[in-house]
């Protein structure tokens, strides 16, 4: 199998690549992974090929699966007007390059898996949200929606698309947890606001496992039969005018937690106190519009994965933290 990954060197792409290589090596199957990069001088990891976007525009190489993960971190800095433009461009430009490749290449990929986030649903408090739920319009929704709609254009060329709406990914190597380690280890970690906001999270191990599961389901044809069987009420298929299969998956654990519970669990895991609280007005002052990511909750359910039979390795936050090594 040949896989092309945009954002392959990132927090999720690198973990996905490592796990795929390990599985295929164990099964004595052929696997070739190529990372797209804008930096031609980037160091190439073992067993990974590198390709620049300029090379992608000329290559005759074909790929079975394209995994589109490129995009700047939405919580990395305040949402100024300029930052919002950067967040959108960092997602749109790589996706446009992939679409151009798909359009011109005579051998189409069997599947495009494209990233998104649970921000698509907007702020909806503790209401349970599945793949068939509606949305509330805010910046996070508009960002995700534009990214998703662009990726779905691959269906115009007969390429099935799977959209992955990812929650807060838990692993000490990066993401939200990686940023919180220092204050928590110093004993100054604490809840945000009133701590009642719901956090929809997923362990990085399960994010990788679910991504591989989705790919295998689509390539085996199991996704087709399941989604059109009418056996479940959560329809995660997207209605495309050309009838090419497109589906959306929530990549979250089945057991969301409040920020209060998250704070206590991380403190217990690190054996540190969690007495501090950052009041909502201070969070709004510090982070501006971006504070919605911290103080407004989302309860997002991975219904499509559960219906398809994916078994979570770490369905609870305690399990996700247990055994993780802090560097």
List keywords for this structure.
327 residues, alpha/beta, Rossmann fold, seven-stranded parallel beta sheet, 15 strands
What does this structure look like?
- The longest helix is centred in the N-terminal third of the chain and has 24 residues, at 81-104.
- Helix content is 38%, strand content 18%.
- α1 (13-26) crosses α6 and α3 (81-104) packs parallel to α4 (139-151).
- The chain contains twelve helices and 15 strands.
- The protein has a seven-stranded parallel beta sheet, sandwiched between helices. The protein has a two-stranded parallel sheet with strand order 6-15. Strands 8-11 form a two-stranded parallel sheet.
- The protein is globular, with a radius of gyration of 20 Å.
- It is of the alpha/beta class.
- The protein has a domain at 2-170 and 202-252 and 301-307: 3-Layer(aba) Sandwich (Rossmann fold), CATH 3.40.50.
